[in-house]
Amino acid sequence: MLSEDAIWTLLADVKDPEIPVLSVLDMGIIRAVSVTGDAVEIVITPTYSGCPAMDVIAMDIRLKLIERGIRKVQIRHQLSPAWTTDWMSEAGREKLRAFGIAPPNPKQQFCSTDMFVEEAVQCPRCGSWNTELISQFASTACKSMYRCRDCKEAFDHFKCH
Amino acid sequence: MVPIPAYIITDHKKSAFLLSSPGITNLTSTHVAQQHFEYILHLADNALILGQRNAEWCGHGPVLEQDIAITNISLDLIGQARMLFQHAAEIYNAMDDAGKASVEKLLPRTWKTYGRELQEDDLAFLRDERQYRNLLLTELPKGDWAQTILRQFFFSAFQYAQYEALQQSGDSTLAAIAEKSLKEVTYHRRWSAEWVVRLGDGTEESRRRIEGALQELWPFTGEAFKAAGFEDGDFAPDPARFRAAWDERVAAVFAEATLAVPATGTWSQEGGKRGIHTEYMGYLLAEMQTLQRSYPNVTW
User: Fold this and answer.
1) Whole-structure pTM over 0.80, yes or no?
2) Domain housing B148
3) How far A139 CA sits from the closest chain B CA (Å)?
4) Domain contains B299
5) Could you say which residues form the signal peptide (chain A) (predicted)?
6) Overall fold of domain A4-77
């Protein structure tokens, strides 16, 4: 007999293909899980419209469930309410930092749309706040690029969204 | 009163455009379905064609960070286009025969030989030039960096106002796509505005370039605000109502960039929304569609 809890536990093992330290639960992209008999429906939400990881994530979820013999899996996309970095778990933020990516700041603290306003971001390597924005866009849609003025390292910042 | 097709209103809380419109009683449901489909294609085409243009910078940006920035924007736009094309395909597949016949002229001929339901890629890659409904602004060549930046700023400032309004659309899927995309458009608008300031209030050379870009692009900005036949208010907001917000944003950024806002004349370049494109469009499509046309029904 399948339980929803068992599915949530399995999902903790499905990683984001672009940031493999984070699970899909850490990312906050699983919106709902429901089980009816031997059929499972999972609702996911994209981080960014063009995020190429979304198709891979859906496939990885399917494969993970198939490993446990769960074959009737429906994955549904839901856009609204739109994903926000506020849904990222506390554990996920810590894992990001340990991985060398500055985690997103809480949205209510700072999320400006004004020109030339820089978000204060802490260097994930040395902990300094003396950092500067290099580029609003980085290696993936969800990140911006910063540089630490103290330890001189460049690093990715998971931007506030 | 003609019944409103069920696929348009799926969320009554968000049906402001539909319910407030007196015009709906004069339309047949087939006509509404046709306008709806064409409007979504218009939104999708804007995102797709500008996404394709910006992607031309991949590996050619002036510096690595900005190469990555413009191609990230391209990726966001193509992602938005995908959601919209998926939505358009779903709407088409659910239409009755009269509805399907009413949008016949917008469908790719090649797809008709496939004998299967319509899919997002058919709409993106198999239509002919006259079937695209994008703004002319989006198809113009990428030009130099100043031209790319200024076009992006003009477009993002417009798209922001448009998507902000679309969040209230009577079509709840469209409202959700707008809500999702708006967050990305906010970055695009900010990033491009900062570059307009840098170029305008930068060196003599950057100033010369952005002034050249302004002269080139300004006549193409008016088209966005002139309602096409498919934008007559029932679920697609009249774009004229975005003009004030756009003007205000352009004036604020231009003031910072020390650029003068050209006078808004009565004449502007237009035609894209009717499928009449510039001479640049065919070349863009030839490049974008070559794979799907050479290998029909290709899968990865």
Assistant:
1) yes
2) 31-294
3) 7
4) no
5) none
6) GMP Synthetase; Chain A, domain 3 (3.30.300)
A141 → chain B, closest CA residue: B72
Say what angle helices B243-256 and B172-200 make with each other, to 10 degrees.
20
Which ipTM value was assigned to this complex? 0.90
Kindly report the CATH number assigned to the domain that includes residue B46: 1.20.1260.10
Of B65, B173, B256, the CB nearest to A135: B65
Could you say which residues from 51 to 110 on chain A have a Cβ atom under 8 Å away from some Cβ of chain B? 51-52, 78-83
| Residue pLDDT tens, chain B, 300 long | 334 343 343 343 333 344 333 333 444 688 888 999 999 999 999 999 999 999 999 999 999 999 999 999 999 999 999 999 999 999 999 999 999 999 999 999 999 999 999 999 999 999 999 999 999 999 999 999 999 999 999 999 999 999 999 999 989 999 999 999 999 999 999 999 999 999 999 999 999 999 999 999 999 999 999 999 999 766 789 999 999 999 999 999 999 999 999 987 768 999 999 999 999 999 999 999 999 999 988 887
Report CB contact under 8 Å: B73, A46: no
Q: How far is A2 from chain B (nearest CA, A)?
A: 32
Count of residues making up chain A: 161
Do the domain assignments include residue B14?
no
Alpha helices in chain B (DSSP H): 16-20, 29-55, 64-94, 97-102, 109-112, 120-125, 136-139, 145-166, 172-200, 204-217, 243-256, 281-294
Chain B positions touching chain A (beta carbons under 8 Å): 65-66, 68-69, 72-73, 75-80, 82-83, 172-173, 175-177, 179-184, 186-187, 189-191, 193-194, 197, 253, 256
Domain ranges of chain A: 4-77, 86-158
How many structural domains compose chain B?
1
In sequence order, which ranges of A32-82 are alpha helices (DSSP H)?
Answer: 53-67
Contact B213, B150 (CB under 8 A): yes
Contact of B92 with B102, CB cutoff 8 Å:
no
**Among candidates A49, A78, A134 on the partner chain, residue whose Cβ is nearest the Cβ of B76:** A49
Start-to-end Cα distance in chain A: 39
